[in-house]
Design a protein that fits this description.
Two copies of one chain form a homodimer. The longest helix of chain A has 37 residues. Helix content of chain A is 67%, strand content 11%. Chain A is rod-shaped, with a radius of gyration of 24 Å. In chain A, β1 and β2 form a beta hairpin. A two-stranded antiparallel sheet of chain A has the order 1-2. In chain A, α3 packs across α4. Chain A has two domains: 66 residues, Orthogonal Bundle (Arc Repressor Mutant, subunit A); 41 residues. Chain A is mainly alpha-helical. Chain B binds a DNA duplex through α4.
Chain lengths: 111, 111
DNA sequence: ACGGAATATTCTTGTAAAGGAATATTTAAA
DNA sequence: TTTAAATATTCCTTTACAAGAATATTCCGT
C-alpha cells in the first residue's frame, strides 16, 4: 500500500514550489527562500520535511547546502498512479467486450 | 502551476485507501465505512473532501450514493509528474553531451 | 582568534483539520 | 403514515502544523 508521506510533503504550497524549482537543478537554502519570498528558517523547515519524506537530498559544500531532487519517490508516485490511468480504458474495454458478445448472440439467433 | 488540492486530499491515509478501493469500481458510503473500519460520518466527511477536490463523483440512487473515481485529476497528476520522470535522464544526457564535447576538444588539441 | 555568512533549531502562537457523538434529512418499505 | 435504512451535517475536543521571532551552529576569510 502507498505511503502518504509523499502526498503530505507535496500538499503544502511552498513545498510544492520548492520541488518545482529543484526540477531545474540543485539550489541552496537562501536561493530557495529568495525565490519563494519566504524567510530562511521557513525554507529550512520545509526542506527538512521534504528531506524526511525522501523527496530531496543534501550535499554540504562549506557552509552551504545544495538541495536536489531524488528520483525514487517520483518513480514510486508513477508506479502508484499508473493503474489509475488505465482504469477508464479498461472499463471501456469491458463494455466493448460486452457489446461484442451481445453482437455474437444476435448473429446466432437472428430475429 | 499545480494545485495542492489533489495532494492534500490524498495525504490523509483513510482517503488514500478510499481512492484505492474505488479503483475497482463504485461503492456506497456504508460499503466504504465497513471496509475501512471507520464510522459512517467519517466516511461521509472524507468523501466530501474527495468530492470537493474533484477526485470522485456521486450518483444518487434512492437513498444510496454511489461514489466513483473521476479520471481528470489523475490525468492532471500524471501531466505534472511526467517532466520529473525525465529529469534524471536529461541530466545524464547533458553529461553525455558534455563528455562528447570534451572528447572533441581532445581530438582538436592532442597532447 | 574573530566576525560575518549560511543554515538549523527552538519556542510560541494561531489555525486547520480529524475523530467522536449526536442529530437532521431523505427515501423505501410496511 | 409510521418506521427503518442510508447518508449528511453540526458541535465539540484534540491534535498537527505552519509562520514568526529569537537563537544556536558551522564554516570561511581576515
Amino acid at each position: 500500500m502507498m505511503e502518504t508521506a509523499i502526498f503530505s510533503a507535496l500538499a503544502e504550497p511552498h513545498r510544492l514550489r520548492i520541488v518545482e524549482l529543484l526540477k531545474n537543478g540543485p539550489l541552496t537554502v537562501n536561493e530557495i527562500a529568495e525565490r519563494l519570498q519566504i524567510r530562511q528558517p521557513q525554507a529550512s523547515k520545509h526542506l527538512r520535511v521534504l528531506l524526511e519524506a525522501g523527496l530531496v537530498e543534501v550535499e554540504a559544500v562549506a557552509n552551504r547546502r545544495n538541495y536536489r531532487l531524488r528520483s525514487e519517490p517520483f518513480q514510486t508516485l508513477y508506479d502508484w498512479l499508473k493503474p489509475y490511468l488505465n482504469v477508464w480504458n479498461e472499463r471501456f474495454d469491458n463494455l466493448d467486450i460486452y457489446l461484442q458478445k451481445l453482437q455474437a448472440q444476435e448473429d446466432d439467433q437472428p430475429e
